[in-house]
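The data are set out underneath:

___
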Amino acid sequence: MNFLRRAFPFAGLAAAAMTLSGCNILVPDVAADSPARFVQEISPVFYEPPGVDPRRVKPIPDQPVPQTRELYKTQFHQTYGLPVSNPLNLDMGMYGQVRDGDFTLPAIPATRIHPEYLRQEVDYQTNERPGTIVVDTKDRFLYFVEGNGKAMRYGVGLGREGFAWKGRGVIQWKQKWPRWTPPVEMVSRQPEVRPFSAENGGMNPGLANPLGARAMYIFKDGQDTLYRIHGTPDWQSIGKAVSSGCVRMLNQDVIDLYDRVPAKSEIVVM
């Protein structure tokens, strides 16, 4: 007894010292090594309404693995708008550096763009006649109808919500290396573009011009819609809806489309 009375004070002092120093003595939980406890702790829990204890699901019985599998049959509608050739085999050289008039367009890092947005001929069934431009605003594609169930497809950037235009019109006229003149509405929203307003002569053509290397002007019922198909130096905007409403294309693509489309061609934006 004397020994215990002498030993306990020292034990108490040691415990107090441990507590004051910020250390904690951890006692191993040997029950944690139990497989049954492990299964109980990790099994999923589904909670019922308040007042009802959680219940645990029963283990899922083993199921035989099928030795054969069914192959899905490709229907016609599943190939609508798909490329004729594998997009991975596209000629990336069409996005290389281009000397065009007084300007040299830099190469586009096409491998950093999703393959579906690169220029390619695709199967395309439509009632529109050859030479018509169809802009699919949902999937961000522009189709140039070739006929015989084919079309040339380009990835495009579009106007953000509230700024896009839809309808049927014509390409009234086309312009190489156009000047950019922001509309009055844009100038009022973005005063920083005022130096390029119509009263100030617009922005000179060039690599930094927002209209890029080509512009095609969309009219409806003889009136300018103020919407354009045009190039853009911002290749990362293709496939996105961030502009003030125009249809933006890679500069190399808009040059290709420009050469295919005659003036007064019909355009459908849907």
In short: The domain at 76-269 is CATH 2.40.440.10 (L,D-transpeptidase catalytic domain-like). Residues 157 and 240 are 5 Å apart (CA to CA). The chain has a mean pLDDT of 77.
